[in-house]
Write a structure and sequence with these properties.
- There is one protein chain.
- The protein is an alpha/beta fold and 233 residues long.
- It has one domain: Aminopeptidase (3-Layer(aba) Sandwich), CATH 3.40.630.
- The chain has six helices and ten strands; from the N terminus they run βαββββαβαββαβαβα.
- An eight-stranded mixed β-sheet has the order 1-2-6-3-7-10-8-9, sandwiched between helices.
- β1, α1 and β2 form a beta-alpha-beta unit.
- It is globular.
Length: 233
């Protein structure tokens, strides 16, 4: 079951307003929680289509299977992705339900995956939002996946520039190369570019206004990536 999420109205310049950004993030967190309650067990996704070149994904906003085991949610990555997509004006696909065990993308068939397989132009790149522990060090880690190409290189260059002065690592500690990543799905199976962004826990709480500047910077960087990917030959 797909749940279409209506984004709240965005006043001009709100991305730079910490209080407003935090308030909107809490609204998205409440919508995400409500949508999860309405979706059937085992299958569900939130889709917001903004006809963008970049599509943000969040596969781990709820408990999920990975490599044969049930994993805890990457806390707040679902609402963070909805907020970043709204501010950056890019499409989002967010998993909102627990899923059956799976090993390969060929055998996985849930609403989240079906949305990704159904993507058409102008979509050119999936950017997959994850959460990492603060003990890893960097504020953000960009994973370029198993088959990075020119679009991944362009996105990394833009993100590293636009996210200054935040610390941005590339491919360490997370490179997005395992077969089960969305980045691998994009690059190996969908004919799309793909990039994974791990966000440190300190920047992922909708209830902490100190996290808003990092999310604002990420959203603005994603806007720049979308514009350049759309223009790239």
């Amino acid at each position: 079951m797909t749940c279409e999420v209506d984004a709240p109205n965005v006043p001009t310049g709100a991305a730079d307003d910490v209080v407003e950004l935090s308030s909107r993030w809490r609204e998205h967190a409440a919508r995400f929680t409500s949508a999860r309650a309405q979706l059937p067990h085992g299958d569900g996704a939130l889709l917001v289509d903004r006809a963008s070149a970049v599509v943000l994904t969040a596969p781990h906003g709820t408990p999920h299977y990975r490599a044969g085991a049930m994993k805890q949610a990457d806390l707040h990555t679902g609402s963070l992705t909805l907020l970043a997509g709204e501010v950056a004006n890019v499409s989002t696909v967010v998993s909102a339900g627990a899923r059956a065990e799976w090993d390969t993308w060929d055998e996985r068939d849930d609403e989240f995956t079906r949305h990704l397989r159904d993507l058409r132009e102008p979509a050119r790149m999936l950017i997959d939002i994850h959460g990492m522990g603060d003990h890893h060090g960097p504020d953000f880690c960009l994973g370029t996946g198993p088959r990075p190409g020119a679009l991944e290189e362009l996105a990394v260059e833009i993100l590293r520039t636009e996210l200054e002065p935040f610390e941005v690592a590339v491919d360490a500690p997370f490179d997005a190369r395992p077969h089960y990543t969305v980045t691998s799905l994009a690059q190996r199976h969908l004919g799309l570019a793909g990039l994974q962004i791990e966000v440190a826990a300190r920047w992922r709480s909708p209830r902490d206004e100190a996290a808003a500047p990092a999310v604002s910077a990420l959203a603005q960087a994603l806007t720049a990536v979308d514009e350049r990917i759309r223009e790239a030959a």
